[in-house]
């Protein structure tokens, strides 16, 4: 059986960076894929088509966020179990969460497919883009269970300390999507000409192949988290684990829902300024996905590393993980922001006509808003460390206040005075407030006394199976310290 990777040993900064790099590279590959798709759509199908995909992708992000927390909760539970040397519990978490996660994703995808037109209409999608957005979104909903399961397996593997395997199969998915996109959009060779829906079908086919490949790889390597036909009992729902997944996962998922709802609210406000401004905002968001990537990668790495060290009772390494994560995030995010400011005329022109009004609008809003992601990165990293113990409500409250107590009201309240600039300035304003609140909670909050599983759900000593090559760690003190 493949060994779990211990993140409780060795130099923290170096290991954190090495663990985060495949995650960052994977995020870059996904964003590059999205940008290539946007280039095909925006340059060859027009600004209305680009607006359509921007609106549809906001809804897709919302639906992914609705089950995102279950995957994060499973990741933390697996990482804590690995850190404590409890491989049996890690596999139990894998089975229970896979059953629940897949069933829920199918239901959400079915409901979303049926209501896609109404969702797009409710968020004020421009009339010329609405039919295109619906054609694209319906196919994306068919791919949702595949997208969910691949993301879930990737997160679970990271909880076991493995960030390289998900990256390899993500690259396969991205390469297939890039190749299939023009083939299905324009009907090259024997393929049918599907237009904007072809971009969604290419995502579906690529994701299906990559997911199948990842499952076969785990089976071939007899990975710690692989559950075969002899492990079918593991797929039965364990109520203690399910309770933790729901109680801890729902608030983490709600964070993604709050973000996506805020994105939809911002997109709705932007749509009110017309197609040029909506297309400019969609193009700027393509650049922002790259700027967010270091924070997302370092935050995910910090969460896995901190959770394993929580399981091992290494609180000194938990604090060091947060410090090193913030420092690495500032460096990497800053390096990305500067060239995207200096060269934004050329980068934004990849998605917009060079002689159009939308390009200048995009440059203007980018200069105002892009700096907010430096501050966003601090919040993302600190919240990842805090959540690794099971403290999920305070980060949710902080995020809710920054988005719905500051960003959205700021934009709406100042639009009569500042026009669209009120929307752009709301990003750095809310990001600064979120950072201050997150750092304050990290310093003075009670997150170190939180727990994922209730004390009675902890396994008996005889149930703990520690691989011979991994030194046994003391039981996690987290549940015992619960208030």
From TrEMBL:
The keyword Transport applies. It is found in: Cell inner membrane. GO terms for cellular component: plasma membrane. Keywords: Cell membrane, Membrane, Transmembrane, Transmembrane helix, Transport. The chain crosses the membrane at residues 58-81, 93-115, 135-157, 169-188, 194-217, 245-267, 287-307, 328-348, 368-386, 393-410, 422-442. Pfam families: MatE (PF01554). One of its GO terms (molecular function) is antiporter activity. InterPro entries: MATE_fam, MdtK-like, Membrane_Transporter-Flippase. PANTHER family: MULTIDRUG RESISTANCE PROTEIN YPNP-RELATED. This is MATE family efflux transporter. It comes from Stenotrophomonas panacihumi. The lineage of its organism: Bacteria, Pseudomonadati, Pseudomonadota, Gammaproteobacteria, Lysobacterales.
